[in-house]
Write a structure and sequence with these properties.
Order of helices and strands: HHEEH
Structural class: alpha+beta
Largest sheet: 2 strands, antiparallel
Number of domains: 1
Radius of gyration: 21 Å
Strand order of the largest sheet: 1-2
Distance between the termini: 62 Å
Number of strands: 2
Helix content: 10-25%
Shape: flat
Amino acid sequence: MESLQKANTNKCAAYPEWKEKHCSETHYTFEIKKCTDTSCCAPKQLEEEKLKWLSEPELDYTRENVLPYEQAKKKETTEKDRPSLTDKKVCKKNTAKP
């Protein structure tokens, strides 16, 4: 198990290639999927259209609400609407004297 630590796996040339082929990593998720190469992975149990990567939260046209999952899963999404990437409102110090 010690050899599966990040410090060791990053040194293995095959690991980054495997990760690129099988994984999707975002701020919110880390997903692993089988590939279509049967010499690499066992055959998939579900159809390809049911095995899509999870969509990222995306704001609707008002820019105040997140799209429902049913709408977001049909489009290619990015992390552009991630709350921690948007500008934070800056609170001004109360400068009024007592």
